[in-house]
Design brief:
alpha/beta; FAD/NAD(P)-binding domain; 2 domains; five-stranded parallel sheet
Amino acid sequence: MASEATEKVHVLIIGSGPAGYTAAIYAARANMKPVLYQGIQPGGQLTITTEVENYPGYPEGIQGPEMMVHFEKQAARMGADIRFGLATQVDFSKQPYRVQIDEEKWIEADAVIISTGASAKWLGLESEQRLNGYGVSACAVCDGFFFRGKEVAIVGAGDTAAEEALYLSKLCSTVHMLIRRDQMRASKVMQDRVLKTPNIKIYWNTDTEEILGDKKVEAMRVRNNQTGETQDIPVSGFFVAIGHQPNSDIFKGWLDMDETGYIQTIPGTSKTNIEGVFAAGDVQDKHYRQAVTAAGSGCMAALDAERYLTAKGLV
């Protein structure tokens, strides 16, 4: 069977969170006729978030999925061509660059903006997914505010977990920190801060068996993995801080990445090691991971792409 003819576009945007949609808004306004493929989770991580209160311009707050609908509508109104589809392979060996969609169709693009995001790692409990957004969260900075004065739990032993535990300790009455082993992986300075914070209670050698609650988190069942003893601890929030996985697998071998798979960009820009390929949002940001910083980097990627295409005489 003959393969479908390759489609040629100016700017191809892969991914549809705040970074991708913002890049699409800027690229469309600059008359670059961007084509955006939404990926496996249209709207990105914000679509599994409930209330968003820290994004500027929404004084009453907004639901994450609704906010992403706003982003998408704005990009479409500016003229971006927004499509369903998942990028499954790339060929950055020569220009124009080639990206395969859904393992069948190839797109050629003068410039590519990668905004495929990152996915939080989860414990794998049924109750964790059922209560996600109803007390279960993978972002203390995003959601800690909702648990002011309440007791919460956090799972994790690295620097991110320590940082988020300290952040929560300023808002919550007690932070129950669950650590699977008898030591933390966090840097010594972060460990010292956690251990010196009176309202962080550490549970060593502890696994989460279940998150308890019908419509919202009410408690957690934990087990000491040395003694086998279990206990139920009342909490209103349950934060998972065992890391994020950047959605960058299809770019391995083409783009420079750090040891965990985050795409490396030239500091202060969205430029990757391949000219004309740009990265924005959580796929290249392991430090901030906020909607507003992702949107800002999407703007940077579109402006960088516009300057690149103009210098090449392609727009």
